[in-house]
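Regression report. Comparing outputs from two consecutive submissions.

Submission 1:
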Amino acid sequence: MTPHAAISAFSYLRAVQADDADAAREFAGAEPQMPELLVDLAERIVVPVTALARRPASRALTPSPWRPSDASS
């Protein structure tokens, strides 16, 4: 993914989030591969950044004195 393609994809997403249909249409029209860019963006940037490390089953969460294990007490 080129820097220009990543910028185009983020610009499109910002326009969609702002409910700016005209700008979103302009970004999508300027980049005919926008659907593929959005998937590529998610696979390369969004998913790795938001992935959480898995906690081993042997390390169960222990009750915290600041967070009681039984909320009904």
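Submission 2:
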Amino acid sequence: MRRRPVLTVIVVLAAAAIAATTWAFLRPTYGDTVSSCQTALSAQFKASGKGKPEACQGVKEDDYSAILMNQIMGDEGWLDEDGRFDKNKMLEDTLNGEQ
């Protein structure tokens, strides 16, 4: 008769461990959240939207600022083929705007 309570506790603990492991594997990683933020921010810029997209709510403020600046520089045409800032493109654009 004492085996049933022990067996019940073991089954409940095993089920909780399986549920916790499944939850840990299925939740989005921070990288997934950042990627979703980049996609949402790009779509928002194309639609001339304003404000922080909902998909970016889980992104750290410093990372969001970097994503936002990258998006702005990309829209201005100041990034090279690898997505890195190209000072010459910015200066060329600035000088062409003054004439």
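Expected: both submissions complete independently.
Actual: both completed, but the second showed a warning that disappeared on reload.
Relevant detail on submission 2: The mean pLDDT is 84.
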